[in-house]
Amino acid sequence: MRPSGRDLSEMRPVSIETGVTKHAEGSCLIKVGDTHVMCTATIEPRVPPFIKGSGLGWVTAEYGMLPRSTTSRMRREAAMGKQGGRTIEIQRLIGRSLRAGVDRVALGERQITIDCDVIQADGGTRCASITGGWVALKLAVSKLMKAGDVISDPLTDPVAAVSCGIYAGQPVLDLDYPEDSEAGVDGNFIMTGSKKLIEVQMSAEGSVFSRDQMNQLMDLAEKGVEELAEIQKAAVNA
After folding, report:
1. Does the annotation flag 40 for ligand binding?
2. Is 125 annotated as a binding residue?
3. Burial of 30 (0-12, 13-18, 19+ CB in 10 A)
4. Which residue intervals define the domain Exoribonuclease phosphorolytic in the entry (predicted)?
C-alpha cells in the first residue's frame, strides 16, 4: 500500500555517523532513508543579551537546504538576500525542541549552536535535523564534561522527532516525500526518549481527522521515537 513497500508502522532505515567534520565540537551525518542531514554543534563562551548574567546556557539552531538537495536546483538563500519563511520556522522549531531537553543551569552560561544542513531531501528533513541535532549537541556537551567545564550532564534524555500521517486512509509512520506530498493528514512529533511530548505539529492536508486517528498517530510516533532514541544512544556511546 505504501509506495516504498514498508509496513504502516515501519520506519525507513536510519543511520547516524558521528565525527564527520574536523572542527566542530560535535558532528554527525544522519540518514533517514534518502533524507540526509549534516548536523554540527559549535560551543561559544557567550549567550544572547536577554539572558546574559543569568547563569543559564542557551541552545539555538540554524537550518538550510543545499541547492541540489531536491530534484531541481534551489537558489541559495544567501543569493536572495534573506531566509525564507519555511527556513526560519524550521530552525526555530529545532532550537526550541533541543532546548526543551537541556538543563540550562547545568550547561552554564554558554551557547551551543546546532547547524543542520540538508544534503539530500526525501521528506522529514526537520525531524531528521532534530534527531541528528541532539546527537551533535550531546557530543559537544560530552567534550565540555571531559574538560571539566560542565560538572553534571545537562542532557539526560534524548530528543528525537518523527513524522506520521494519514496516507491513502491509513495511519503511517515516517513519511517519505511521495507520501508526504499526498498525505491527507501530516504531523511532526517531537518527544524525549521517555516519551514526554515537546511539540506536535498536526494539520489536515486535504481531509479532516478524528480523535481516534490522532491517537493512532501518537502511538506510531511513540514507537518511532523509541527506535530513534536507541539509535541516538548507540551513536553517542560508540
Report:
1. no
2. yes
3. buried
4. 10-140, 157-224
